[in-house]
Design a protein that fits this description.
single chain; 200 residues; five-stranded parallel beta sheet
Length: 200
């Protein structure tokens, strides 16, 4: 794992939601409004493919089949990205962890390095997510923006990601937002909920 300073323990938020729920869009806005850094787990993985990293074939096979990339691969990329970035002490991690094993590995490998704040869960209807992904596929160029892979990603989200949601709900570290609303409304609700959550 990446070397780190014992004096620096960056703040981390997880942003979770189904495919097309608006995680990336909301993180981009939050990064501007809160002066923090947005790290997309998916984008880091796609960058690792285009940069011909040692994990290229593993990542490629997982993404194209809608399966979850092995935890140590994703955590290694996130670890490096957090501790190479000096512009902020607050990080929004979008699209990770995606299953319980991801979360357990993150806790084992990263909890002593960072200060975990909360999970922001963008709850979105299946119809809205399908509509958004269909629209996005026209311009995104992403290999996973198709109906076949989308169905597999829905199953992963329902079967695996919900266990993480419940874990953080029980720990009172969950903020849940209705993602079917407009981009502006969702952003306003996240900012308001963060303010309330951290004043308690």
């Amino acid at each position: 794992m990446y070397k780190f300073s014992t004096l620096r323990k960056p703040f981390v938020y997880f942003i979770l939601g189904g495919p097309g729920s608006g995680k990336g869009t909301q993180c981009e806005l939050l990064s501007k409004n809160l002066k923090c850094v947005h790290l997309s787990a998916g984008q880091l993985l796609r960058n690792a493919i285009s940069n011909d990293s040692e994990h290229k074939s593993t990542i490629e096979n997982c993404i194209n089949s809608g399966r979850i990339v092995p935890s140590h691969v994703t955590i290694n990329l996130l670890d490096k990205a957090i501790f190479e970035e000096q512009s902020s002490e607050t990080f929004l991690i979008d699209g990770f962890p995606r299953n319980y094993e991801n979360m357990e590995n993150w806790i084992a490998l990263m909890d002593h390095k960072i200060t975990f704040k909360s999970v922001i869960h963008i709850l979105c209807s299946r119809a809205t997510m399908i509509q958004r992904i269909t629209e996005r596929s026209k311009t995104s160029g992403r290999s996973d923006d198709n109906i076949q892979t989308l169905e597999k990603r829905f199953i992963t989200y329902q079967n695996d990601t919900y266990k993480i949601i419940e874990h953080y709900r029980n720990r009172k570290q969950l903020i849940e937002i209705n993602g079917d609303n407009s981009i502006e409304t969702v952003q306003g609700e996240i900012l308001e909920s963060l303010k309330k959550h951290h004043s308690q």
